[in-house]
């Protein structure tokens, strides 16, 4: 079979992905093999592929493909999240374009439109993942609002409510005035914005201004002062103020504790309270306390029993309780009230100010802290076991630097607001009687029975009298069940259930690959749900990726225009090139400084493998020729197995970037640059059968090794007739991954010296401008126990050496260099630059003497020698002996020039 001159990624990707699908290589069913399971972090149905998805799913695919090749029953479950806020916003916008207002249609009509939108757009990202090569079991594709998964959510809600872990109450929440819903903390994006700091005068009431019994300092400070000045960024909320707070240790204001001030413009009287929460250094040291519109103020309000006045409507406009500017938007009101304050003489000054403000991730509206009647889930009780699993190592966070963050979150966990004022999602299974009483039940009929058993006054109640809660549960309340519900949703809400064959085989899953920013909001909650409903962890390892940034460190985003389209990258560099490019610069837990040149490097690597294969494929084999490459074959066999052990170790530590780099170096440097050069026959000459067979076998193992990283290229080459005729199911995707065998460490060390010799001779040719075609002589002064006769053929071939001899003396008029402990001379017939050679030797001596000084310092450190492992100390002693021997040889060489 002929092979094209260049690799065509587009053609190979389309062909082999369909081939894998047709032969059901991604499909998994329980059997006798060890399972290896990953559940995809379900992307939002509103999403399209971005660079974060590319990284996350490439890592998952590498892990799943490698497990499959190691003989495990690999199952990667794909799916999407209904993304309640984001999807509802999309549907509302779509309806608006059609001239339809959500308020004018029923819930049922809206959901019909929403499902139509989801069916049309919701699967886009999963189709895009196929372009990347994602080997998911697509038959298992799940959606968080599939009927069975939705029922699991409802059952979970009912179960936790019965356990006393879900309750309804008024609490401060993050309110999205544009989306008209509460949002979770993880849906709030903090941004630094330019604001104004307004200094507002609050007039002291007459009884507060007499200043009786003030300290001398206070008297001076408050002389002729009839007001307190408050610094705030939100003057539009002053009408909701319940108190002014001072620090009890602040002598400027301590005499005013318990006194009264008037709120400007509305002249309402409020008290001055004291609390150490107040920062004396910020603003004027006085704090306006607005319990309904600030979380910290709310806590102060509870502590000091303050009135709570909510002056904002759900859409962010001022309501009647504000008394002024009623109906105005909060930001317009801010500008207008600043003007009113100035006109009334209540505005001292205005300063520019920068601060962090929360914005809704989905609508980009500024978040409003708001007191609201919501459903909450108690977290403290469930957080304990979830923390223990990580502390005990039952779940490993990779890298482990995130353990302290996780521990802090779990030890300071707050109740979870799980209700959302939306229609897209699982509707809360709560039912209200006409008098407002509420029960939690799966159906109206079940709720009716509960009411009738609750009180006699409900005896004549009908199910049609009941009203179901309008709200839906938070999206995370469905996705925290994901590792269980994708296998057996009936287990959720029913911890006593034994579960079906799937959940008992695939659960707990093995690895979860996700982002650190949802470590608490999703990962921790999945651990809680796993403990609650299965009594065990949902996964064993959590691989935390970093943020993909551009090469100057900015987070990639559409708004900045610095995020390339992943599909464009695949079209330009091939899926394998992009996968390699992403992984080369992505250590676990650290941000990725992505540069498109990495994808170019990945593409070049694919081309390197392709061209190396074409070279081997083009060799003519002569069965009669003897094998002259036994040493080279033995060396690469050891080198391959050494690299294999290193790669395996990196995978075991989830150091995927390092595993790829080790594979890259093995192929590019050891195989292509050295092994193939060592064994390839002279131009238009045949190769012996033994060398050819060994080389083809190595290439086949290299394809196996590279397949998790580069699935398309490796599958394309795997089916070439170089490897003989293959059955239709004999594919690289399910080939057995090679296992590391014995390594000849002495041979590896000696070949490294040989490679150094060849490199030094090539360097001499370059610096002296000697043609590679001109044969040179080589003399060796041997100090080590290396038998260079064993490597004579390799050195002669790669360095074009016509004669290799041995000497006990220095050779004058020769270029000299060290490799290991041995000294080498290349006679140059008077062409040598004596001064340049002396300078080169002096530089090398200086370097080695500095190195020796560092080693001596380490060995003279008693603590190091006592505490280090014996082999580490021995290694340092070997370094010292080696450096001393090299310095001795170099000084002898230098003396020969004098």
From TrEMBL:
GO CC terms: cytosol
Methionyl/Valyl/Leucyl/Isoleucyl-tRNA synthetase anticodon-binding domain spans which residues? 635-778
Q: What EC number(s) does the entry state? A: 6.1.1.9
- Which keywords annotate this record? Aminoacyl-tRNA synthetase, ATP-binding, Coiled coil, Cytoplasm, Ligase, Nucleotide-binding, Protein biosynthesis
Q: Which GO terms describe its molecular function?
A: aminoacyl-tRNA deacylase activity; ATP binding; valine-tRNA ligase activity
User: Which Gene3D superfamilies did the record assign?
Assistant: HUPs, Isoleucyl-tRNA Synthetase, Domain 1, Valyl-tRNA synthetase, C-terminal domain
Coordinates of motif 'KMSKS' region in the sequence? 555-559
Instruction: Kindly state the positions of the motif 'HIGH' region in this protein.
Output: 43-53
Q: Where in the cell is it found?
A: Cytoplasm
Where is the Aminoacyl-tRNA synthetase class Ia domain positioned along the sequence?
Answer: 15-594
Q: Which GO terms describe its biological process?
A: valyl-tRNA aminoacylation
Entry's free-text remark on domains = ValRS has two distinct active sites: one for aminoacylation and one for editing. The misactivated threonine is translocated from the active site to the editing site. The C-terminal coiled-coil domain is crucial for aminoacylation activity.
Q: What is known about its subunit structure?
A: Monomer.
Family, according to the entry, reads as follows: Belongs to the class-I aminoacyl-tRNA synthetase family. ValS type 1 subfamily.
Q: What is this protein called?
A: Valine--tRNA ligase
- What is the organism of origin for this protein? Pedobacter puniceum
